């Protein structure tokens, strides 16, 4: 069992079957999964993307200035973080949202030592607004926060139950990997996280565990080393 983990969620994970926005039942299910992990004595931090509301890279592709589009995407992650905070607190889980873009009316500013103290007290800390800088993804923000918090593991909840050689929804011959090295991910250009995030995890020796966020109870299972997942680390 790991002592402190960071859960990385895409914004799309909160949509459920909807084409856009936040599905309350899906958020409640994810919150229940996080509660179960916290109940086992594991300290949990969370980083959420904003793609269910706005993706900066797509806005830039449509002609918007990239930096402005990225800031809009960061604000979308704050909306998602507040939604997850509300769902967790309904379940009696003490939670704090810390934003890399200060907005003290709705959440705390990101302060590393305060975040660590929250974790030590058993609170879930949700990190919003990415790194606070344009041109960096929330994957990179997740790895950065995991390193700053001294996390033992990054759990990335995705649409599939691990890392595949290709998109299994489009390519039925795609091969699923049980374990990969950071080098394998970078050399094979596997679309797990962006290269900056993977390189940062490798440098700080933080393993990444990729699993399906759509399976109820999967988060608690993978933290215990059970269920279906792909482990990415420095190799044996």
Provide key terms for this protein.
236 residues, alpha/beta, Carbamate kinase, two-stranded antiparallel sheet, 19% strand
Would you give an account of this structure?
The protein is of the alpha/beta class. The protein has one domain (4-233): Carbamate kinase. Helix content is 38%, strand content 19%. The protein has 8 helices and 11 strands. It has helices spanning 24-39, 56-61, 66-90, 112-120, 138-149, 182-187, 195-203, 218-223, and strands at 4-9, 43-48, 95-99, 108-109, 124-128, 153-158, 163-164, 176-177, 179-181, 208-212, 230-233. It has a 9-stranded mixed beta sheet, sandwiched between helices. α1 crosses α3 (66-90) and α5 (138-149) packs parallel to α7 (195-203). The two termini are 19 Å apart. The mean pLDDT is 94.
Short description:
By secondary structure, the chain is an alpha/beta fold.
Shape: globular
Distance between the termini: 19 Å
Helix count? 8
CATH architecture classification name: 3-Layer(aba) Sandwich
The sequence of SSEs as H and E is EHEHHEEHEHEEEEHHEHE
Helix content: 25-40%
Name of the level-1 CATH class: Alpha Beta
Topology summary:
Elements: E1 4-9, H1 24-39, E2 43-48, H2 56-61, H3 66-90, E3 95-99, E4 108-109, H4 112-120, E5 124-128, H5 138-149, E6 153-158, E7 163-164, E8 176-177, E9 179-181, H6 182-187, H7 195-203, E10 208-212, H8 218-223, E11 230-233
Parallel strand pairs: 1-2, 1-6, 2-5, 3-4, 3-5, 6-10, 9-11
Antiparallel strand pairs: 7-8, 10-11
Helix pairs in contact: 1-3, 5-7
